[in-house]
Amino acid sequence: MRTNVRQMNPMNQTQGQKISQQRAEKIARNINAMDTDYQRMDDMNSWKFWNGLEKALKKKLSELSPSDIEVIKPMLKPEEAKYFNLI
Q1: Are 38 and 50 in contact (CB under 8 A)?
Q2: Domain range annotation of the chain
């Protein structure tokens, strides 16, 4: 049976925070890169890419705890944070 090292060492995370800083930064980077006007694109390949990214990000955000989302919020651009209903 494989054990997550982060679970074994409580010093790696703060109280109530389960997301790693690296993962939070990756999610924030993807949210900030999101083209929020992709619905207006004529290019189907680009539309599919942005639509897929939006779905993946919304799924990841729905799996996070409120304290995890609070870690991500300061890293977000206001427009993208509003788009994902985070502010």
Answers
A1: yes
A2: 22-83
